[in-house]
Design a protein that fits this description.
14 helices; four-stranded mixed β-sheet; alpha/beta; globular; binds uridine-diphosphate-N-acetylglucosamine
């Protein structure tokens, strides 16, 4: 087992390089199954979820090569297995993303029901209904989703909720379907757009990219390309939030600032000075009073649920009352109990977290309950008095590359302990 030991109080300074986006990399990795010739991917973060995805692709029979610069070549021309086993799927909910690509290219797919972060019920009904609308016969049996379709056909699909992986799964299914598919109420997250651009480069015909209405004209085959995934906007914003809570100035580089508009607005509202350049963001919170902000999480371009926990920590230590309303997931306030152990004063009423501000945080032993919750505990520990032990950090290794190394280089007092 491993944990992080963090002694609070250090100011951060310097520059941190953001890794490739996990949530863009995962669907793109699964999308490699669609190509008849090898795909070469770069800027793929070195994370547990990426390893799990590569293991899944290898289990299916893909040939994978990684060079010294971490470029990953994936050759799915000779897949021999169409089953995503529970042993892999249980650790990563995004494994469901293999369903659309396998089904559309090979006519069948068998995917264990997904696991992943324990935030609310997180169903996959919209994925299933969409594939059924495209002609798939689907059954759920023994903990597996079994899907069959000799060839999917185009369909007009209105997704009843905005779902990121749901949109991605159906998009990947549609690119090789017979005819035209409309995906309405599609997620517009930059990661969905990145996948759509990747698929287009492989030969897919997609219009409406970046909008809520994707139109996909199925093609007969797709071919491999070289593709670089976008930077991780949530990782970038997490470091910005670390600077905010510690009253520091840092520069976050290798980012795409346009992906962070709603988040940058909230940093500015919180009293942080922000300077945006082409691919970097400088934040300066020295000698500034951090103010609480009101937030409602929304699908992109609204404020991302994946930054909710980090802004909650900002509100906990900031001046004034703050209200954060979580509208995307149920049960996404599990970090609150852990923050309370550190002295945070937070009232929860349904999906609303209200803070009075000015909490003086003290070190404690806390458990990371999910990916973004673990990030928020690190932020809290950076300002807490004393040494905090953050346990169950396997969650954080699913989403943040080299986190203790990056924080250490910024001047944080942080170390990983195996025990
Ligand atoms: C993705 C991201 C995750 C982010 C989330 C919301 C990946 C790998 N993960 O998760 O980091 O927090 O988007 O931005 O990209 N829903 C249904 N039925 C479905 C599918 C979803 O009801 O079939 C609901 C969910 O329960 C949730 C909402 O739709 O309430 C949004 O979930 P969704 O966008 O699908 O989240 P993920 O794609 O799993």
């Amino acid at each position: 087992m491993e944990k992080l030991l963090i002694t609070g109080g250090a100011k951060l300074q310097g520059r941190v390089e953001v890794s490739g986006s996990k949530n863009a990399a995962l669907p793109i990795l699964m999308g490699c199954v669609l190509a008849k010739t090898p795909v070469v991917l770069s800027n793929i973060p070195h994370l547990k979820d990426v390893t799990t995805s590569l293991q899944l692709l290898a289990t299916l029979g893909a040939e994978i090569m990684i060079d010294e610069r971490m470029n990953i070549s994936i050759d799915a021309s000779n897949l021999r297995d169409l089953t995503a086993p529970y042993s892999l799927v249980k650790t990563m909910r995004a494994s469901i993303l293999i369903m659309g690509p396998l089904l559309t290219r090979f006519g069948e797919a068998h995917v264990a029901l997904p696991g992943g972060c324990a935030i609310g019920s997180r169903p996959v009904d919209i994925h299933i209904k969409g594939l059924e609308a495209m002609g798939a016969k689907i059954s759920i049996d023994d903990g597996f989703i079994h899907a069959y379709a000799p060839r999917l056909h185009g369909a007009d699909i209105l997704m009843e909720k905005v779902t990121v992986t749901g949109t991605e799964n159906l998009l990947m299914a549609a690119v090789l379907a017979d005819g035209v598919t409309h995906l309405r109420n599609a997620a517009c997250e930059p990661e969905v757009t990145d996948l759509a651009i990747f698929l287009t480069k492989m030969g897919a015909k997609i219009t409406g990219i970046g909008t809520e209405h994707l139109v996909i004209e199925g093609v007969e085959e797709l071919n491999g390309v070289d593709y670089r995934v976008i930077p991780d906007r949530i990782e970038a914003a997490t470091y910005l939030a670390a600077a905010a809570v510690t009253g520091s100035a840092i520069t976050v580089s290798n980012v795409e600032p346009s992906h962070l508009k709603s988040v940058i607005e909230k940093f500015i509202e919180a009293g942080c000075s922000i300077e945006v350049e082409d691919s970097s963001i400088h934040i300066d919170c020295r000698d500034r009073v951090l103010r609480s902000v009101d937030i409602v999480t929304q699908p992109y371009p609204g404020f991302p649920t994946d930054m909710q926990a980090q802004f909650l920590v900002m509100n906990v230590v900031a001046e004034g009352q703050g209200n954060i309303r979580e509208t995307i997931f149920e049960n996404r306030f599990m970090h609150v109990a852990e923050l309370e152990k550190m002295g945070a004063r937070i009232d929860i009423d349904g999906n609303l977290a209200t803070t009075e501000g000015h909490s003086l945080l003290k070190a404690s032993h806390v458990n990371a309950t999910d990916l973004r919750a673990s990030a928020c505990l690190i932020l809290a520990a950076l300002v807490a008095k004393g040494q905090t032990h953050v346990e169950q950090i396997y969650h954080i290794d699913r989403g943040y590359e080299l986190i203790e190394e990056k924080f250490h280089r910024l001047g944080a007092n942080i170390q990983r302990l195996s025990y």
